[in-house]
Design a protein that fits this description.
Helix content is 72%, strand content 1%. It is mostly helical. Helix 2 packs across helix 6, helix 9 packs across helix 10 and helix 10 runs antiparallel to helix 14. The chain starts with a helix and ends with a helix.
């Protein structure tokens, strides 16, 4: 059963990645004018590479509620656009100063800092434009709720707040609760938004999404613990980015605070807990369960 779930997951990851790339290819047609380099930078960052875990979560959750796939993929692409914007900006010299992302030069290395900032800004705008578009969902209340959900995940109570904490971490000593809070904002908030948006597309009420939020919360923390382990033990060629960055920057991580074995045990416990939140669902949630397992077995 586990082998079948894993094979199905890998097939679905490849399928969703292809769908997302197709969406970006259509949305980011390069114009024959002075904006050309901006579009080329956006395409460089958005098309090809990456796990596409976030759009996969949107699609898998929307699938629980039989959402039309043509609608779900637009929302999923919107979420991925926001994620890519965050990667472009995180990689800038004023932030994490990275040269490699998804196995290719970071956007500022390939196109210059100014163009990279604009490419991130434009993908941020594209994300909300997709969620607000009536082609994504006919109900304006659904569109508004998705947009509000993503805005919260992107702002000071989400990714931006987590990134600020990450910058402060370079000159501070954080304890485990503070590192947990940092990662809940920087990484976990968008993962939770992906699951929520999939359910919102299915017109599930906020109260009806409680178990899915629990799943996403635990998944996000397990994902980050696995990332911390990969940063120490992973292969840079497979990861497609520089590793060992946190130790060099003197940042506390789950791994440095808990130790390797305890961190592994904690990640597995979180995965088991995440799957337990799906006990109210049957085989239709197997993809979400497989995603949880993949979180701690991946090599990139």
């Amino acid at each position: 059963m586990a082998a079948n779930n894993n094979a199905n997951l890998l097939r679905e990851m490849e399928r969703v990645a292809a769908l997302v790339d197709r969406q970006f290819d259509t949305l980011l047609q390069v114009p024959d004018d002075a904006r050309r380099e901006l579009y080329e930078a956006m395409r460089h960052a958005a098309i090809g590479g990456g796990k596409r875990l976030r759009p996969l979560l949107v699609m898998a959750t929307a699938g629980l509620f039989n959402v039309d796939e043509s609608c779900a993929i637009r929302a999923a692409t919107g979420v991925e656009a926001l994620h890519v914007y965050s990667l472009i900006h995180d990689d800038l010299p004023c932030m994490d100063d990275d040269d490699l992302r998804r196995g290719k030069p970071t956007t500022h290395v390939a196109f210059g800092e100014a163009t990279a900032v604009l490419a991130g800004d434009a993908l941020h705008a594209l994300a909300f434009g997709l969620l607000a578009d009536e082609r994504t969902h006919s109900d304006p209340f659904v569109r508004a709720e998705m947009t509000a959900c993503l805005a919260k995940a992107a702002g000071p109570a989400g990714m931006a707040g987590g990134q600020m904490m990450d910058l402060v971490a370079e000159k501070s000593t954080f304890d485990l609760p503070t590192v947990t809070r940092l990662q809940q904002l920087k990484t976990g908030a968008l993962i939770t938004a992906c699951v929520e948006i999939g359910a919102i597309l299915g017109r599930v009420t906020k109260e009806g999404r409680t178990s899915l939020r629990g799943y996403a919360h635990d998944l996000g923390l397990a994902f980050q613990i696995a990332d911390d382990i990969l940063d120490v033990e992973g292969d840079e060629e497979k990861a497609g980015k520089a590793l060992h960055k946190d130790a060099k920057a003197g940042k506390e991580t789950f791994l440095s605070l808990m130790g390797l074995e305890r961190a592994r045990d904690q990640a597995q416990m979180l995965v088991d807990q995440a799957k337990s939140h799906l006990n109210g669902y049957g085989a239709e949630a197997d993809l979400l369960r497989a995603i949880a397992e993949y979180t701690i077995t991946r090599d990139r």
